[in-house]
Amino acid sequence: MAQDVTDAAVRSLPLAPRNPLPLRELVKLVRRLDTGQEVIRAAGGPVTRIQLGPARVVPPIVAVMSPDGMRDVLGRNDAATDRCIIHEEVRGMAGDSLFVLPNQQWRPRKRALQPVFTKASVRNFGGHMARAAQAFVDRWPTGGEVDLDVECRRVAMQSLGRSVLGIDLNERGDTIARCMHVASSYTADRALRPVRAPRWLPTRSRRRAREAVDAMRTITDEMVAACRADPDRDAPLVQALIAARDPQTDRPLTDAEISNDLLIFMLAGHDTTATALTYALWILGHHPEVQERVAAEAAAVGDGELTPADVSRLGYTVQVLHEAVRLCPPAAGVARVVTRDIEVTGYRVEKGSLVALGLYALHHDPELWPDPMAFDPDRFSPENVQARDRWQFLPFLGGGRPCIGEHFARLETTLALATVIRAMTVESLDDDFECEVPFTTVAKGPIRARLVPRS
Ligand code: HEM
Which of 403, 407, 411 has the most ligand 1 atoms within 8 A of CB, as the residue to mutate? Predict the structure, then answer.
């Protein structure tokens, strides 16, 4: 394993090859967090160094896009990478949370939160997407033309409101979605600039982003206070966070920590689950035969509201979702700062570099995925999954600091997809749709589909 290589041996390794593309092109590609990765890899290989300015001012970026590279960066146990400028920007805007804390401060928080997010525990607060998806279906009793992006965002927001905050957001959902968009676009835009204005500078966009975060925090603060006052209040995740303790020190979380984490769960969970569901519905809308299989599987469970207990009988639906997030990973790329020289696939990555882990390129690599653009849920049959390198498919990342919401997201999107497809046939009306990647991957415009109720 790479971490066994001694420091002296690492020092003797060559740097990752410098990407030969012209600077101007690289600047654009680095901001195009999904498809840009493939162009970068085609020119410089699966581990390639990008220098966007003088090394004293702008740290090198090392793009890593192969399973071996992922393993060498993520599969280490020596904490050689840590949070980077993206996380610092989110921290500056939304405060300390599990997502942004540097490793050392993160560990106790993770120890306290992890038991709340196990596969078994998420059933205590998850499952609301089935009801939110049913509400979507009920809004279209005779079918019609819909924008899948709008509908799935609404489903995700309503179910997150219930699961994370323990409230029905109703029309407040749209306001929160707007606030989240303002705050995350601002932070992502800043994080991706090679040079940025100091945080204390009171720009108009910063003020708007701050107001948006404050509006969201009012809601999370209210929920924490309400649950403190009423321990029987039906908000299981908030109650679980209040009860959570660091198993090593027995320290509970403060109200501010809980509020910040609730905020980040909403931010990290909304666009990601919405995009997974939208893409899955859209691609099923082009593959009627696969859609019929999902519908039959869901119908075999029964016609009542689907619950977490049903997920074990929705194996093919889960495969469809895996294939959807392979093709359209909601988190297209992830970055870390390297805190000491490390080896990545035989190259030296120097302390201070930014490693950019290209999940989009990894998931579309023709060497790893034959005919990578083809939609084929059988890639995720149990036999195929077993035979595959575990570092080849990483929608939720992997290693020591993966997505804490993975089980929850899988549960919710499976129930939602099965609920919609059991009730409706989806016909996608557009051959393709454009995405943008301010932070996570989101649709750039409407995604039109025709819904036809199943008799
Ligand atoms: C399909 C849905 C989702 C995908 C693809 C996804 C993907 C990811 C990825 C790739 C990361 C690593 C980011 C980084 O290290 O910079 C991450 C982290 C995280 N995600 Fe998710 N996520 C999803 C849903 C959720 C949900 C529903 C929640 C909330 C409950 C959530 C909460 C978080 C948090 C708090 C972190 C930071 C974890 C830590 O640093 O310990 N995610 N997610």
Answer: 403
Residue type, 152: C
Residue 403 assigned to a binding site: yes
Q: Does the beta carbon of 166 sit less than 6 angstroms from any atom of ligand 1?
A: no
Whole-Å CA distances, 201 to 87, 90, 198: 19, 16, 6
CATH class of 95-325+401-455: mainly alpha
Tokens of 222: 């209210």
Question: Which sequence spans correspond to the domains of the chain?
Answer: 1-93+332-394, 95-325+401-455
Phi and psi (nearest 5°) for 292? Answer: -65, -35
**Residues 24-68: pLDDT tens digits?**
999 889 888 888 999 999 999 999 999 988 888 889 999 999 999
Question: pTM of whole model > 0.90?
Answer: yes
What order do you get walking across the sheet with 448-453 strand by strand? 144-147, 448-453, 424-428
Pick the CATH number of 1-93+332-394 from 1.10.8.60, 3.30.428.10, 3.30.43.20, 3.90.1310.10: 3.30.43.20
Does residue 265's CB lie within 6 angstroms of at least one atom of ligand 1?
A: yes
Q: Which atom of ligand 1 is nearest to the CA of 113?
A: 41
Task: Indicate if ligand 1 lies below 6 Å from the C-beta of 273.
Answer: yes
What is the tens place of the pLDDT at every residue in 157-210? 999 999 999 988 877 788 888 888 888 787 877 777 766 777 777 788 888 888
